[in-house]
Write a structure and sequence with these properties.
This protein is mostly helical. It folds into two domains: about 110 residues, P-loop containing nucleotide triphosphate hydrolases (Rossmann fold, 3-Layer(aba) Sandwich); about 80 residues, no CATH class. The two termini are about 25 Å apart.
């Protein structure tokens, strides 16, 4: 395939951070695929040293197909290619946890629908019906009606930098109840997969053996991180 000078420059940039900014349909994914193929030709680089993130599993399959096609066309050895991760951040974080952190081995992942079912079926234990609102007519959240809103709030409290003093004590209490229910039943929601992985990545290796294992793996084994559709 013929590349423009800018595309060729991006493909050849293998030894420093690179951001590709281009309009839709300009060939960004093809360039990323070719760049990954080029990385695989470097001395002392193995497929397991590369992580490629996509926004969806469908996009991951497309990226994998393109990489395989390029490798075949250029006669590049595909040995060990199955060890290169290509997929979503949630998928990678879950794989990281369940390979390296023993306490997560038996956890199952909830979808948006099963998360709501869990909260509705355990409306008291989850903290849903005890969670206060600012409405005088509805002082606490209601089962079935507000489960989605409740789950959104539990995600915000984990994903964003929140001033705890501005959050009512009752909301924090309900949040703790929800998190307790998740762990009691050995479930991850999507937010907790990322949240827990980040906790281990930012953890103290001297005080936490699991953090030491996770951080050691990333530090020693991962050399290239590629992100497709970064804006998503």
């Amino acid at each position: 395939m013929t590349y423009t000078p800018s595309q060729a420059e991006a493909i050849a940039c293998l030894d420093e951070p690179l951001q590709i900014i281009a309009c839709a349909g300009s060939g960004k994914t093809q360039v990323i695929s070719q760049r990954i193929a080029s990385i695989l030709t470097l001395r002392d680089v193995e497929p397991r040293n590369i992580v490629a993130f996509t926004f969806t599993e469908k996009a991951a399959a497309e990226l994998q197909d393109r990489i395989h096609s390029i490798l075949d066309q250029e006669g590049i050895d595909r040995t060990g290619l199955a060890e290169m991760y290509v997929g979503t951040m949630h998928g990678y974080a879950l794989d990281l946890l369940q390979r390296l952190v023993p306490e997560t081995f038996k956890f199952s992942v909830l979808t948006d629908i099963t998360s709501r079912l869990l909260v509705d079926r355990n409306s008291k234990q989850s903290g849903l019906t005890a969670c206060p609102t600012s409405s005088t007519g509805t002082p606490t959240l209601r089962r079935f009606i507000h489960s989605r809103l409740f789950l959104q709030a539990t995600s915000v409290l984990r994903e964003d930098t929140v001033n705890e003093d501005l959050v009512p004590a009752g909301v924090w209490s309900s949040f703790r109840d929800y998190m307790g229910l998740l762990y009691d039943k050995r479930y991850f929601d999507y937010t907790e997969i990322i949240n827990l992985a980040v906790q281990f990545l930012e953890g103290d290796e001297d005080a936490d053996a699991d953090a030491a294992t996770v951080r050691g793996h990333i530090r020693d084994d991962i050399r290239y991180v590629v992100v497709d559709e970064y804006q998503d």
